[in-house]
Amino acid sequence: MPTLVRSDREAAPSGRDDTRPSSRRAWWRWGRHALTLGFLALVTFLLAQQWEKVEWERVLQSIRSYSPQMLLAAGGLTVASHLLFGAFDQLGKRYVGHKLGVARVAMIAGVCYAFTLNLGALIGGVGFRYRLYSREGLSAPDISKIYALSVVTNWLGYLILLGVVLVWGGLQPPRQWGIPAGMLPVAGVAAWAVAAAYLAMCAVRGRRSFEVRKVEVTVPGRRLALAQVVMSVANWMIMGGILYVLLGGEVDYWRVLAVLLVSAVAGALTHVPAGLGVLETVFLALLSAQVPAHQLLGALLAYRAVYYLGPLVLAVCLYAGLEARARR
């Protein structure tokens, strides 16, 4: 009687094919974590190196020296930036076609942005959006689309401005970083290429749909993509303007903006909530030759108070009001 047993060689192919993708994903995951930890170690080293030289008494004196007019200008720009970032969700409203009121969307988006800045995207961008929008009757796929559109909008303007400052020489890294000067324009053109690819897709395939993990996704149309560019570029430029004001105009605006853009991607890579320490390290490394360290740190601490902590206090109050309304 024949024995119904297959050899390992016959049985192996299906199992081997199933494990290869998971194996590649595992290597990519570990490699990404290793790069993140390495980058975080570098930032920590630079931070320790710079902060040993800080004269904290002079930092406090620098903060006390701000005039009411300067703080008022920084506060006004902060309000404009937060309202503009909140308007990203208004684009999301148009994108998914939900009927939630403009004021309600602005309130939810403002709360989410303030918590994202201080606690990270996973809590503020994802967690709070799902909690608040789902209570207003939005489905999980629609909330995911709103969040994804907001993220794309934010980084679309970032890529365009990064290309500008890298191609036109707005950024000059220290020699000890070992970055060839000729590499910066190449990186700038690459940033433009990514942004151009997205805009081309919207122009050619706008309003066409495809599936991602059984969720139907529609490519934004030309007008929506153009609105994304304008709003995101304006928001990043306003953020650079806040730091420019707090530095007293002692550094060229485009250089301030360039350093802010570098610190933003450094904070995203390290996953440190609010980019705490990362923002300061990058600014000290790139601008300490032009501005004294105590003045730089004073401006950055004032920036955190005005742009991060002030809106967070307001967001906590708004969120408490939304929770109370939901209970009633």
Number of helices: 12
- Specify the structural class: mainly alpha
Q: What is the mean pLDDT?
A: 83
Strand-and-helix sequence, N→C?
HHHHHHHHEEHHHH
Q: Which range best describes the helical content: under 10%, 10-25%, 25-40%, 40-55%, 55-70% or over 70%?
A: over 70%
Q: Looking at the structure, what is the overall shape?
A: globular
Count of all domains? 1
The major beta sheet can be summarized as:
2 strands, antiparallel
Radius of gyration: 23 Å
Provide the low-confidence segments as ranges: 1-16
How far apart the termini lie comes to 76 Å
Strand content: under 5%
* Sheet with most strands: strand arrangement: 1-2
User: How many strand elements?
Assistant: 2
Question: Explain this structure to me?
Answer:
It is a single chain. Helix content is 77%, strand content 2%. It is mostly helical and 328 residues long. It has one domain (39-327). The protein is globular, with a radius of gyration of 23 Å. The model is unreliable at 1-16 (pLDDT under 50).
List its traits.
mainly alpha; 328 residues; two-stranded antiparallel sheet; 2% strand; globular
List the helices and strands and how they pair.
Elements: H1 8-51, H2 56-64, H3 68-86, H4 88-96, H5 102-119, H6 121-135, H7 140-167, H8 183-205, E1 209-212, E2 215-218, H9 222-246, H10 253-270, H11 278-287, H12 293-327
Antiparallel strand pairs: 1-2
